[in-house]
Amino acid sequence: MFKAEHFDPAAWAELFKKSGVKYVVPVAEHHDGFAMYDSGISDWTAAKMGPHRDVLLAVGGWLNVNGEAIYGTRPWRIYGEGPTKVAAGSFHDTHTGNYAAEDFRFTTKGDVLYAIGLAWPANGKAVISSLAQTAGSERVRAVVLLGNEAKLRFEERPDALHVQLPAQPPG
Question: Where, residue-wise, is CATH 2.60.40.1180 in the chain?
């Protein structure tokens, strides 16, 4: 029987607060009861059957680093860019191919634009076409990689914003 003896609601609340969460609805199972977390009760879990990890912890870790680009944001003038075609409709997540380093999604908060890369570029360079230098466009003042303290080199060009990334992604 599930007793939740290791459940720490204070730790969860602190994580949500740090990420800027305003409303929480914990849903930890897929539509067919497949648990997205590890469980000693069932083998029907992501940790035991695949992808062989606790998906809930992975999402929490990602949000701990990147939540600022999600919570309290608004859509930008375009949702994103990139070559990967996303299958429309419910239950089509397996019909979308792997994301490429050219795939980005955009959000804004105040005067900050977030460009969320959906795959880490093997060559260490992010090239964001939607931020190309054009006549009358606002200049990019700074580029920051969430979860990374190092200052990033970037160059605005007519074809795209080019950003030199660190060798490894944060987190």
Answer: 75-164
